[in-house]
Give the backbone structure.
Amino acid sequence: MVSGFQRKAGLWWALVLCTPVWAQVPPSSNAPFYTATSVVDAATNLPGAVAPNGLVALYGTRLSFATRSLQPQDVISDVLPTALPGTGVRIAISAISVPILFVSPQQVNFLVPPLLRPGRHKLQLTREGWTGPEVELEVAEVAPGTFVMESRFVIATHADGRLVDGKAPAQSGQVVIIYASGLGQTLPRLGNLSLPRGAVQIERRSQFRLLLNGTEVEAGAVLYAGVTPGFAGLYQINVRLPARLPENPELRLGVGDRLSPAGLLLAAQAALQ
């Protein structure tokens, strides 16, 4: 079951355009500048390991002379571009060109190639012939993260596309869609530049876990865990909430023992006793 949410495009860009966590004085040069710690997971906005098919934000200075986001006309035959027209910005991970989703002077968002093997890799950004520093990027099988609103609540929607928040909280027994990143490989696997057009489950579906206040939701209640059709690097989890839903429970999700960061909440109304 995959949501027919018609406003996903606006939501997707709200997710990937994060608030910078990076602040460092660059050397005097015309070259792009960034550091290993300014390469962050687009969901958690934290440095550290990322996963294949994960959304990543790179923060720095002089990254581009233009601001541009991915447009429908940039995707030809469901192939994502490795450079946005008019920007001259490219990123390579271990010499593999990666799909670029957003470019600005201080931020570039990109997709970790789905077929990239776990391990330590070298990342480098190039802008119109000027190269930035080569920094190390750790790629793990999974690096789960949930997208978050400013108030510590995870971004989720009702089945009809309405945002789950304090004005429209989740209800007991209701199906909601939670948006995440870093859930790793899919079956079938996506190509490095492929835009998913249909529902594709995560490869380690049998190991997927969703916890509310530390209590694991029954596996049968997770109706779908995979990529969001038409949106690079974005995963969605369609889940039927338990009958005894606590108020604003902590929500964590992941694969095996790799879980999303603690302390984030799902806006929910407590079940009547």
